[in-house]
Design brief:
This protein has 150 residues and is mainly alpha-helical. It is built from ten helices and no strands. Helix 3 packs across helix 9 and helix 6 packs across helix 9. The chain starts with 6 loop residues before the first helix and ends with a helix.
Length: 150
């Protein structure tokens, strides 16, 4: 699909601010490996090829295994994720599909067992950020390698 509007040229100041807040939230203290899993999972749900390409590559570079990357689409059944990762992935699934899945008490209870209140906010903001990037990429048909954005 050909790209549509390039948000970086159409609204450069807003995109700089969006990128800056994305970086700040990504550096807020949660484990890099956990954040990459969350980014990949949300991008799977949203069907964002750009973000899947980027974050699976980043996860591999950070030492994530092929097995865990391939099993992420079926994380509920896969035994290779920690309880903390499972809580984050469940929260990601629910917040990414909030219109239909909501944020049920059982999901939140699992989250509170694994994450401090500050980490809950950090994770929730990270989920919001990746969903925003997914919507920009899918909405504008953006695929970084085609556009030279790496």
């Amino acid at each position: 699909m050909p790209p549509r509007t390039n948000p970086y040229t159409a609204a450069p100041e807003l995109m700089k601010a969006w990128y800056a807040i994305s970086i700040q939230i990504g550096n807020s203290g949660l484990e890099h490996s956990l954040l990459e899993l969350v980014k990949i999972r949300a991008s799977q749900i949203n069907g964002c090829a750009n973000c899947l390409n980027m974050h699976t590559s980043d996860a591999r570079k950070a030492g994530e295994t092929e097995q865990r990357l391939h099993l992420l689409a079926a994380w509920h059944e896969a035994p290779c994720y920690t309880p903390r990762e499972r809580a984050a992935l469940d929260w990601t699934d629910h917040l990414t599909q909030i219109a239909t899945m909501r944020a049920p008490e059982a999901t939140y209870a699992a989250l509170t067992e694994q994450f401090s209140p500050e980490e809950q906010v950090q994770l929730t903001l990270a989920i919001n950020v990746i969903n925003g990037w997914n919507r920009l990429a899918v909405g504008f048909n953006l695929y970084a390698p085609e556009l030279g954005w790496h």
